[in-house]
Amino acid sequence: MSVRDGTPRRWSPVPPAGQLRTLAWGTLANTVGSGLWLAGVALFLTRSVGLPATSVGLGLTVAGLIGLSASVPLGHLADRRDPRSLRALLQLLQAGVAASYLLVQSFPAFLLVAVLDALLVAGNLSVRAALVAAVAGPAGRVHAFATLRAVANIGISVGAGLAGLALAADTRLGYTMLVLGNALTYLISAGLIMRLPPSPPSPAAPGTARGAALRDGRYLAVGTVSAVMASHRVVLGLVVPLWIATQTSAPRAMVSAVLVTNTVLTVFLAVRISRAVENAVGAARTMRRAGFVLAVALLIYPTSSWFGTGGTITLLLLATVVYTIGDLFHATASASLSYELAPPHAIGQYQGVSGLLTGLAEAVGPALLTLLLLDVGTAGWVALAVVFAATGLAVPALTERALARTGGVLARQPFDQVPASPGSPVARTRVPG
């Protein structure tokens, strides 16, 4: 099959013409800005604004934690309003906040802008999840999530490459162009999103409250376990680069090689892997698989310090390939569970809770995992591998309990005997012709 006949290739991140493609273009524009900002924020604030690096780190950490408080309220608002218009509005506000970094000249001003930015970012993620569900529908939202994840990796890579021009110039003008470029991508993304048709909210169930998701203990249990496993992102983004630089004989360029390997594999495998997850039961099994695969990667990484340069490079790349597959298993399963275990009328609110839990795990991850993996060493890697394998094993039972709470069809069948949903790879093999 090809993109031309309306069906995307199984490996391709490019969706067919339609609403998902429009959303993908919006995501591409938005994430080009993300790449610009992620690559340039530290140097802009230290080299151009003149803030101490410690102040920048403190401010971004505080802002990130405060920003998480917007996840659930704005997710709830997306359930009661058109998520398309709400996301476009948030991105217009983000454009203004992004541009206002140019006015920052002191730490208090930086902290104010960073907090506003973080609140909008966290809220926008919840609204985006509701919009993806509205655009793709129950049968296609996990595939859509994987597609947008692949597109986002492309966008971030392009943005990071463009940021290199500003960083190389190391001038106020260069940093100004970086900031304005980031703001411009929000405007472009908002314009593309408004090309989508409006999405009227689902009718609310009687007695639905804003904090209902926070009181849903079974959903919280699944989300917490998934969030613990989500800390693996800190391993690749922070710990592995430091490990390469301080604990191995590999050249520093291997940091880029590892990140590029992860990005390329994500672009080409995200959509394909998403096709294996058709419902909550399949997602729980995939999460269990993710725990084991990530554990294997964590056992390979520390062995890279045992060999010479050639062996180290080989093991680092091998571990990254295994890690990326585990990462994609986790991302796909996490997205599916966060959707499938949420009431249809409260997708945004429940997605907000999922984002809140993941954000908290990622907030404590840098300090905890650098201590565990870099200071403790091999024993720390082994301990984290055991944690990931154990959390993956816990997901099927927790999911079964959450399905029993929903009272759905899946809850009334043995967990290991739930049939594949129509259109799944398993179901298609049973249909003649």
Automatic annotation (TrEMBL):
Q: How does it sit in the membrane?
A: Multi-pass membrane protein
> Does the record carry Magnesium as a key word?
no
Tell me which Pfam families the record gives: MFS_1
- UniProt keyword annotation of Metal-binding present: no
Q: Which residues form a coiled coil?
A: none
Compartments reported by the entry: Cell membrane
Per UniProt, the keywords (alphabetical) are: Cell membrane, Membrane, Transmembrane, Transmembrane helix, Transport
Can you tell me where the transmembrane regions are? 20-45, 51-74, 110-136, 148-169, 175-194, 250-271, 292-325, 378-398
Give the InterPro entries listed for this entry: MFS, MFS_trans_sf, MFS_Transporters
| Name assigned to this protein | MFS transporter
Q: Which species?
A: Plantactinospora alkalitolerans
